[in-house]
């Protein structure tokens, strides 16, 4: 497969996964507003911090209101990570790789793009916005299912799986960091601790992991068990460990994979070095921050192995 084509396929799945995960994040944050008492401080701006977009938000908006945060995350084309921008990028990458991807996905991504672009007026209503986010999630899952159900497991499929699972692992780590950060920043910690199970149940729901957690862990929901489950469970498809296992499997099928295999091995060792950090602790935040840096290094290794040096040689 040509390097530039492989890169586009890689980013097709990353962008679609990013759109789905961002919609999940927005939906769960809205639900948390309903589930927790009003006296507990929940900031919409925390979503901006979660995706590391503080500087751009301050430049474009400044005022940290719900309306501005939602516009920035969903519909602002000036934000390259907004849902609309990510969909446009996914759409362009699918357009330029239509000869190797199912033709149905081109129609599906166009329909999703039109849906989001035509519903900007719904963003001011939480109920309508939540309905829209649910539609976005279902549409992304339909595209992902089309890839899984119709593609041969060749190099195209491998690069799709590689991009999807790298993006997924990154968002899972960020959502765990969000839960811990929320606990650590509350002034009235005793009030939050009384509702801590609500917080962590919402974190699980953000990755559709509530049912699997209850089946696998079989204990009352608490932060430490949720963190351990979403980092280390070997069967749940959105845990970081399961994402890494999938990455490791597809990397084995690709040529010139030495540098990527080294980064995967380094990340595996890091995950095995897990300690039972207290939820909300600085130690957990530091661990998750370093995990995200490992994932960035893995992305860099992917570029080094399959995209950059082959472009230079072309």
UniProtKB/TrEMBL annotation:
<feature type="domain" description="DUF403">
    <location>
        <begin position="1"/>
        <end position="307"/>
    </location>
</feature>
<dbReference type="InterPro" id="IPR007296">
    <property type="entry name" value="DUF403"/>
</dbReference>
<dbReference type="InterPro" id="IPR051680">
    <property type="entry name" value="ATP-dep_Glu-Cys_Ligase-2"/>
</dbReference>
<dbReference type="Pfam" id="PF04168">
    <property type="entry name" value="Alpha-E"/>
</dbReference>
<protein>
    <recommendedName>
        <fullName>DUF403 domain-containing protein</fullName>
    </recommendedName>
</protein>
């Amino acid at each position: 497969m040509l390097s530039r084509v492989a890169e586009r396929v890689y980013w097709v799945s990353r962008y679609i996964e990013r759109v789905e995960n961002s919609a999940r994040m927005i939906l769960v944050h809205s639900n948390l507003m309903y589930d927790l008492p009003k006296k507990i401080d929940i900031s919409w701006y925390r979503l901006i911090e979660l995706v590391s977009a503080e500087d751009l938000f301050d430049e474009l908006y400044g005022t940290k209101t719900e309306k501005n945060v939602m516009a920035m995350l969903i519909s602002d084309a000036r934000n390259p990570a907004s849902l609309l921008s990510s969909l446009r990028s996914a759409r362009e990458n699918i357009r330029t790789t239509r000869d190797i991807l199912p033709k149905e996905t081109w129609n599906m991504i166009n329909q999703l793009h039109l849906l989001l672009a035509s519903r900007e007026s719904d963003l001011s209503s939480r109920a309508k916005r939540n309905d829209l986010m649910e539609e976005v999630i279902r549409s992304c899952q339909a595209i992902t299912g089309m890839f899984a159900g119709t593609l041969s497991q060749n190099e195209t499929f491998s690069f799709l799986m590689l991009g999807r699972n790298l993006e997924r692992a990154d968002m899972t780590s960020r959502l765990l960091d969000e839960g811990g950060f929320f606990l650590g920043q509350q002034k009235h910690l005793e009030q939050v601790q009384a509702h801590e199970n609500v917080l962590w149940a919402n974190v699980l729901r953000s990755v559709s992991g509530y049912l699997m957690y209850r089946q696998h862990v079989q204990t009352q929901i608490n932060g430490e068990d949720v963190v351990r489950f979403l980092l280390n469970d070997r069967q749940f498809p959105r845990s970081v460990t399961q994402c890494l296992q999938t990455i490791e499997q597809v990397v084995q099928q690709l040529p010139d994979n030495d540098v990527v295999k080294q980064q995967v091995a380094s990340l595996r060792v890091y995950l095995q070095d897990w300690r039972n950090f207290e939820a909300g602790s600085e130690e957990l935040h530091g661990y998750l921050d370093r995990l995200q840096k490992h994932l960035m290094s893995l992305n860099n290794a992917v570029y080094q192995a399959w995209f950059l040096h082959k472009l230079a040689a072309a």
